[in-house]
Write a structure and sequence with these properties.
The protein has 495 residues and is α/β, with parallel strands linked by helices. The protein contains 17 helices and 23 strands. The strands form 7 sheets. A 7-stranded parallel beta sheet has the order 10-19-11-12-15-13-14. The chain has a 5-stranded parallel beta sheet with strand order 7-6-5-8-23, covered by helices on one side. It is globular and about 75 Å long. The relative contact order is 0.13.
């Protein structure tokens, strides 16, 4: 029986390179790569060898016959991706094999290419994929820098603690931390990292997008209104973030992306279920004594185009101890759900209860998450602290009574000392990772392309940046002053 890829797919394509029959798609170089929610195994082509499961860094691949309960849905989800495709038209020599692309060699380094000294700033996925590329495919010496005392970046402080499989990719990255050609410098701020430029041939900044996007509505800075990063960092034990008050019975999360779903899931989770995870002890204690019974996800868009991915919604709907309800305040919501085709996001909501919620009343007994689509936040209400959120609706504005508001409207990069910055996009202006006007300086990850894509998207991003760096090195475009500084240091050591 074929294998199937499940919810925790990181889409970094480690599985693609080991498949002997090319049955995992979209693959790097294909139009859909980086645009789909996950990768998919063609059940008609898979030969059940299990190589992909061995290579998967996040334990997302299983024999289809072993999947039971809610994960069983991924057997159909994998097959759906290939429905309607003419597999025989793609075949090369037999109907069991997809056509292979011609071999490509995008990098050709001279045989006498001298080792480079490269500094990488940031130990999250983008930085670590760049480190992996440099250490495995060149003779470079790497100095890896992070301002925090613990390596990991987004994997350590951004992935929800009840997603241990996703966090496992950190083990893949960690094996490079004691590589003989790598120096690890933790607890080093960006200002100190800037000094690395004079001692290295190149510097790659992979610092992510750390600032919350503003909602631009009255009251969003009231006490009790928090950015999503503050909540995510809190339950992951980020050293910079304070505790979160969970004394409110209802919490409104503005946004409906995967981060918003993570927050809703953690705030409504039974503490005992989280006790065996990597959740911060202080957060677990707060959940045990907290009063949160209802989390409202406020989504501007409809259920057919919601920002969350299908795998994340499936995981949310599968929880037996927490209710999931659709607020039936707008006729467009029911029309989108009932008219959805199989495989559409809206179709996943078809079996959920729909309710006209009275937002002036306290939450009902038990714990639940309410999805309110086609509703924009207009103001965070309150005088000295949050009292609720005024939101739009077809019958007029409504105030959703709540004691806490979490703003999960996305992230943006922050300016870096000495580098150009595009305030509109929240990124460092670059071409294929090359920072404009700064030879020898590069960016990778969200600070390069904006906060889009999951962990695996950073692999191709970092590879492009490292490729640009190597191309510049071969062409002699790296700053001569850095080469002279390194040569001078060597001569002094020999003297």
């Amino acid at each position: 029986m074929a294998f199937a890829i499940t919810q925790t797919c990181c889409a970094d394509a480690s599985c693609v390179s080991v498949c002997p029959v090319n049955c995992i798609h979209p693959a790097p170089g294909e139009p859909d790569f980086g645009r789909t929610e996950m990768l998919y195994i063609d059940p008609g082509t898979c030969i059940d060898c299990g190589a992909c499961a061995d290579a998967c860094p996040v334990d997302a691949i299983f024999p289809a016959g072993d999947l039971t309960g809610p994960p069983r849905a991924y057997v159909e989800i994998n097959a759906e991706y290939y429905a309607g495709q003419d597999v025989l038209a793609q075949a090369s020599v037999a109907p069991n094999f997809h056509r292979w692309a011609p071999p490509a060699f995008p990098r050709v380094l001279p045989s006498d290419f001298a080792p480079l000294d490269v500094a990488v700033v940031g130990t999250g996925p983008a930085g670590m994929y760049a480190v992996e590329d440099l250490l495995l495919h060149t003779d470079s010496r790497v100095t890896l820098v992070d301002r925090l005392p613990v390596a990991g970046g987004l994997v350590r402080y951004g992935v929800a603690p009840d997603h241990p499989s996703t966090k496992k990719i950190g083990e893949t990255f960690a094996r490079f931390l004691d590589h003989p050609r790598l120096k690890l410098r933790l607890g080093t701020g960006i200002g100190a990292a800037r000094d690395l430029a004079g001692r290295h041939d190149a510097v790659i900044y992979a610092v992510g997008a750390t600032e919350a996007r503003r909602l631009g509505i009255p009251g969003e800075d009231l006490p009790g209104s928090l950015p999503a990063a503050a909540v995510v960092g809190w339950y992951n034990g980020h050293p910079d973030l304070a505790s979160v008050d969970l004394s409110a019975e209802r919490v409104v999360v503005v946004g409906a992306g995967n981060v918003a779903l993570d927050i809703a899931r953690i705030l409504t989770a039974g503490p005992d279920a989280l006790a065996g995870t990597e959740i911060a002890p202080a957060a677990l204690a707060a959940l045990r004594s907290g009063k949160v019974r209802e989390v409202v996800l406020l989504a501007r868009r409809g259920p057919e185009t919601a920002a969350y991915t299908r795998p994340e919604l499936l995981a949310l709907a599968a929880r037996p101890d927490v209710g999931l309800v659709v607020d039936a305040h707008d006729a467009r919501i029911a029309a989108a759900i009932d008219g959805a085709e199989p495989g559409d996001k809206a179709a996943l909501l078809r079996e959920l209860p729909r309710e006209a919620v009275d937002w002036s009343s306290p939450p009902p007994d038990g714990r639940r998450i309410v999805l309110r689509f086609h509703s924009s936040p207009l103001a965070v209400c309150g005088d000295t602290e949050v009292r609720g959120v005024r939101a739009s609706g077809p019958a007029g504005d409504v105030e959703i009574t709540a004691g806490r508001v979490v703003r999960a409207a996305g992230f943006r990069g922050a300016p870096l000392p000495g580098l150009p910055f595009d305030d509109d996009s929240g990124t460092v202006p670059n071409t294929a990772g090359r920072v404009e006007g700064r030879p020898g300086t590069y960016v990778a990850g969200w600070i390069k392309r904006g906060p889009s894509g999951g962990i695996g998207a950073n692999k191709a991003c970092a590879r492009e940046t490292v490729g640009a760096l190597l191309e510049d090195a071969v062409a002699g475009r790296l700053p001569a002053r850095r080469r002279r500084a390194r040569l001078t240091a060597k001569l002094l050591r020999r003297a």
